[in-house]
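tokens incoming
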């Protein structure tokens, strides 16, 4: 325990130097070299999560989600596009998270189990994550998914209660199986205004002057293959590229994306109209480890 604490203190001290001195330039050069060698990505930032919109439908309309008033076009990501994306990740030997959502409920897509299986077979070092409202999850279905290694369910209960189907999973699953599911309640989550789309939450009078870690470490891909700046771009207003035409590497390392991430790493939220209206606050634990590019 003490060793872990001392390691965290040492890391925080290092990142403080990287943020405040010339060590930051060396840090970013080393990160760029490491990412180029490990993933073939020529950037000092590297995505650790990929979010794929396999389907756009949701069975709920929560007050804190843009789906409550505006519906994204109904549709699915094609299997050929999905396989192309997974092929790109396999080529990189990707070892981060792969999730299957944007604003839809992934368990509504009957292809999802096959998608998870395909992901694990071709990108074995990744961690499949299924963000779901849990409405369609049963113990049998849950067990089918977690057969595939590292699959993790992240369930948010928007009614702030434990429904019978989830209670059955938590009560009857083994201790080992329970390592594959996390249940949280909406009233314990800090909600975002989704770049101003959720009007009841208001918008900052001035853009927040702080970095945001989400676009620095997450790649969000819509069902058509569009890469948006971050998960808050519900309407796809700022598309940075399309992975049906280009590789994930090419889109991530594109000059507009690099310029945006560089500005955001410095806390400049005027770099995008999305960021100007956004109220998302990065946790201190992540904020301390963002080194401006």
């Amino acid at each position: 325990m003490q060793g872990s604490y001392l390691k965290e203190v040492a890391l925080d001290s290092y990142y403080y130097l990287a943020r405040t001195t010339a060590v930051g330039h060396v840090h970013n050069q080393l990160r760029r070299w490491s990412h180029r060698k490990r993933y073939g990505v020529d950037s000092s930032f590297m995505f650790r999560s990929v979010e794929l919109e396999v389907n756009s439908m949701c069975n709920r309309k929560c007050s804190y989600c843009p789906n409550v008033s505006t519906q994204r076009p109904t549709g699915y990501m094609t299997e050929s596009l999905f396989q192309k994306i997974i092929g790109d990740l396999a080529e990189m030997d990707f070892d981060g998270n792969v999730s299957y959502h944007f604003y839809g409920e992934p368990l509504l897509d009957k292809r999802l189990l096959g998608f998870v299986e395909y992901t694990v077979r071709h990108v074995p070092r990744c961690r499949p994550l299924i963000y779901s409202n849990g409405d369609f999850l049963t113990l049998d279905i849950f067990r089918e998914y977690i057969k595939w290694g590292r699959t993790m369910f992240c369930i948010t209960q928007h009614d702030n209660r434990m429904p019978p189907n989830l209670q059955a999973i938590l009560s009857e699953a083994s201790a080992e199986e329970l390592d594959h599911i996390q249940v949280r309640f909406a009233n314990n989550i800090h909600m975002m205004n989704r770049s101003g789309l959720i009007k009841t939450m208001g918008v900052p009078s001035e853009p927040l002057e702080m970095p945001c870690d989400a676009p620095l470490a997450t790649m969000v891909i819509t069902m058509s293959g569009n890469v948006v700046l971050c998960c808050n771009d519900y309407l796809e207003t700022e598309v940075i590229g399309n992975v049906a035409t280009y590789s994930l590497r090419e889109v991530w390392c594109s000059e507009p994306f690099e310029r945006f991430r560089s500005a955001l790493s410095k806390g400049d939220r005027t770099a995008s109209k999305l960021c100007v209206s956004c109220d998302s606050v990065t946790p201190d634990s992540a904020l301390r480890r963002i080194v401006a590019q």
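note: The beta strands are 49-52, 97-99, 127-132, 152-157, 181-185, 218-221, 226-228, 239-242.
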